[in-house]
Amino acid sequence: MSMIKLQDVSVSHRHGYELRTVVHDVSLTIEPGECFGLVGPSGCGKSSLLWVMAGLNPHWQGNMQLAGHQAQPGKDFTGDLRREVQMVFQDPYASLHPRHRLRRTLAEPLKLLKRDNINERIDRGFQHVGLDPALADRYPHQLSGGQRQRVAIVRALLLEPKVLLLDEPTSALDMSVQAEILNLLNELKQRDKLTMILVSHDPDVIDHMCDRAARMAAGRIVS
């Protein structure tokens, strides 16, 4: 069974009292363990599509199946669907509270899921991405950009997702750190059998990471 299947998915953004369609009739099928790339210029709709797949924008139409679950337009993701589809943002501050120590931020979803051995899970997660677990007791601003992005990856992986959505995860980093993060993601994909969708404007990043890719322009898949 496919891990991700989109059929004629269109996405809208709210502008005042109106909805404006920014993605038009996208159909994709992505198999388990595959890394699929979406490449295109800024504003082409690739991030808008990813945010819908993460459950962060309810304004969409069409048919969307993720990790064996049927998503419904206009409805929030709940239960296993919410846990099994996780996102890593371009700016790690989007998922790390600036005034909370990292351990507190990472522990909160695990507490909601009633997981045991939370501190041990967090420490293992840091080791898993090549970070000293002692960094978990710092604030986000006390880490470098590359370290923060690794922590954002830990945040997503702690929930044991099946699908990892990556929205320009290295574009804010310098070239040497970009390579480290991309190699880490490749290692995690192989080890954890993750299905990934990687959004990027950089064809070289897509070529390095992805098994297949599609190009978007003006809100549509064009090749």
From TrEMBL:
Superkingdom assignment: Bacteria
Membrane protein topology class: Peripheral membrane protein
Reactions catalysed according to its record: glutathione(out) + ATP + H2O = glutathione(in) + ADP + phosphate + H(+)
Enzyme class: translocase
Annotated Pfam families: ABC_tran
Main localization of the protein described in the UniProt heading: membrane
Residue ranges of every copy of the ABC transporter domain listed in the record: 4-222
Gene3D superfamilies in alphabetical order: P-loop containing nucleotide triphosphate hydrolases
GO molecular function, one term: ATP binding
Localization in the cell: Cell inner membrane
A cellular-component GO term for this protein: plasma membrane
Record function comment: Part of the ABC transporter complex GsiABCD involved in glutathione import. Responsible for energy coupling to the transport system.
Family, per entry: Belongs to the ABC transporter superfamily. Glutathione importer (TC 3.A.1.5.11) family.
Protein name as catalogued: Glutathione import ATP-binding protein GsiA
Organism: Duffyella gerundensis
